Amino acid sequence: MWRPDLPSGSAPLYERLADVMECDVLSGRLIAGTRLPPQRDLAYALGISVGSVTKAYAEAERRGLLHARVGRGSYVRGIAAATRDGPTFESEASESAGNDVIDLRCNTPPPVPLAEALNKAVSELALRNALEPAVQYVPSTGLAVVRMAGAQWISSRYGFDCTADDLIQCNGGQHAITLVFSSFCRPGDTILCGSSTFYGARVAAEHLGMTLRGVTMDSQGLLPEALARAAAETRSRLLFTVPTLHNPTTRTMSRTRRMEIAEVARQYDLTIFENDAYYAYADPDGRPPQIATFAPERTLYLVSLSKGVCPGFRLAFLALPRGMARDRILRGIRALGYCPPTLGALVFARWVEDGMADAIADSIQAEAGIRLEMARAALGVLMSSPGAARTPHVWLPMSALEAERVAARALRGGVEITPPDVSIVSDDADTGLRLCLGAARDRETLLRALAVVTDACTRHQLCSGEGIM
Asked: What residues does the HTH gntR-type domain cover (predicted)?
């Protein structure tokens, strides 16, 4: 265990501890990927308060010396990030130069050039005198022109028919999830979901004081009989699901499975919250209909622009069944932010009008396909076959212990992966590692990252004598 010698001085104790950490990183005593001691253990070893160690770790993270991850620990980032003023823009953006950790944790679409299209749209909106709503309060449901564009987009790209009146504009998918959880449940209530699920749903439930109950999954996602059993045992009234390219396992429910889930929901009076963030990545000729088409009277349907057009717009659309909880949702919007932001939404509406949104989405889909083939070539049988033609993330199934060791080995090699336990809801969850292919700034960076991950998996097998599940 790292146990530094604390120098004397007039600086606060936490600053002196952070200074020692920085010196040890620069000298090579602490190398990139080293896991630092738990704060309580280091406090005991040094004879100081846990609060001082906590503040020292926070200061070290501010300086760019370490990554701290809830439930996983704190890891040294390395010499490139060790600056007293924190990580510079250049060090954060220097993945392709090999000077910093390649971060494959953020599930973002592959990067495509957007600056020119953005400037053009803003200029055209200004010429139309159409930017005024961007500096004013707007209705809680969002602007009519934006919701009309959303309805057109969802119909053409997702094959799901809705009208502007069916939609509520949200400040991104995470806002919509928090909004629905807080509108349909109270602190202490149970929300059903897969045995592993989108980490954002876990964050929202924990923040709101609610409990997620994991439902057993198979290769197609939620098992209907397990859902029925969980609904009967918990008397929950809300099911959260990602049926297409499930995050993190990339599984996709078949048409039959979606029909079965809809029937169980009717039997137990469950409201279904269908997060369809990845539906646009599926093959249009073979993708199954949304669960909302089988249970339209009880399904809240969510589409986010973050995974397929532009994460920075913070724009999502929530389609509500006619007459269901609209007032509750609108009260939630006013409580959480009063009204949605509009500048990015206005640009999106303009892009839908002139076809730029389709062009951007097509470019993202094409790049996602190329990156998926790169992942297949590098990882081979280590990677599960995703349940869609393209995907921004892939899944490497393995035991929880293997996943921890492979992630640590990859971090030492300069690649950071989503901690394997962040998506787990119940003990029967499938375990493994999620790689976010869109997070790398370019193909060259992704190729280097994939080589590191493949090597980490292979070396672990050789060292342990175990095989990847």
From this structure: 11-79
* Contact status, residue 385 vs residue 397, Cβ threshold 8 Å: no
Dihedral of CA 88/90/93/98: which sign? negative
Cα separations (Å) of 66 from 63, 419, 450?
8, 15, 22
Instruction: Convert the pLDDT of each residue in 292-328 to its tens digit.
Output: 999 999 999 999 999 999 999 999 999 999 878 888 8
pTM above 0.85, yes or no: no
Helix (H) or strand (E) holding 432: strand 432-436
For 360-369, the pLDDT digits (tens) are: 999 999 999 9
Outline where 221-290 has alpha helix (H).
Answer: 224-234, 255-267
Letter string b/e over residues 93-106, b meaning 16 or more CB atoms within 10 A of that residue's CB: ebbeeeebbbbbbe
- At 233, which amino acid appears? E
Domains with residue ranges and CATH for the chain: 13-92 (1.10.10.10), 115-356 (3.40.640.10), 357-464 (3.90.1150.10)
Q: CA–CA separation, 345 vs 134, rounded Å?
A: 9
Quick one: 194 exposed, middle or buried, by C-beta within 10 A (0-12, 13-18, 19+)? buried
Q: How do beta strands 73-76 and 66-69 pair?
A: antiparallel
Alpha-carbon gap, residue 264 to 270, rounded angstroms = 8
